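quick one, 347 residues, struct below
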Amino acid sequence: MGQRLLQLEQWVTSLVASKKVPFGKGWVITPVSGDASFRRYFRLTNEDRSWILVDAPPEKEDSTSFVEVARTWLDSGIPVPEVIHVDFSQGFMLLEDFGDSLLFGELSAQSVDGLYTAAMDALLAIQHVGNDGLPQYDEPLLRREMSLFNEWFIGQLLKRQLCEKEQKMLDDLFAVLVSSALEQPVVTVHRDFHSRNLMCLAEGRLGIIDFQDAVAGPITYDLVSLLKDCYVAWPSEQVVGWVSAYRIKAQQRGVLDNSVTDAAFLRWFDFMGLQRHIKVLGIFSRLDIRDGKAAYLEDIPRVLSYVLEGLHRYSEQYAECAAVERWLREQIVPSMKKLDCFKDVQL
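---
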């Protein structure tokens, strides 16, 4: 038994002894999963009830933001797990259990319209929550995220060094993407609103998890996370239809000004997608190289396909998009295919 798990069990024992939790003796802890962070999750069962235990080492993870966002959103009617007890010094939390049914596992060609409609309604509710006190998704953060692409995907994974011309080409594109992000309405942003962070609950409801990195930022960010999901892809025409439907709902509910056209909103969405997926290429590479989580490499081709698609859509209007698309297809994709994990990938 690891030291952290032993400490977690001792913490639960102390909660039971002090009668601070809604269960008594006879409880059992079983692993649930980890995620892309340093957090680990366990299920605590006692007779016919269960809860979730979170192990978030305080030197690696900030549980304060998780608890603050959880309580604010729950008070606003957002379906997030109730925080029953927390020990910030040790990095332990006891949460309501939302079960094991991820939206990801329920998606199919037949179910996706209904499930995404529910998810977009939940997203609109989040965007109505006040964002006072949340960190700003500002220019330095947007640029810092995209720099992960240069460092981890290009440099560490593909072992390439950007020349001065390539660096300027990327900088020019990044400037376009940052400008597009900053001209959008600012709302509350979950920041990882996708099919593995949405839970299917009873009576068709959706539960929302992994929200501790919430920020105040662009209106299309979470929509991109959902509709251009790094773990599942849908036909481009279908995605465009969902984006248009969301724009109309957002305008009806007062989140988006009525003057924003379909074309303008789609451009915001697509450029936000480029920013997010460029970042994710770096993050998934880092998860493999630094953290030993090689499974994320399987999703890199899908993410790169999103980038290529987004660049191509605007290649005639934006020279910056055309230049990077050409470079990726002519230089980077061939470099990827030299690696065994990507040798059979079609892009």
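The chain has two domains: 3-96, 103-342.
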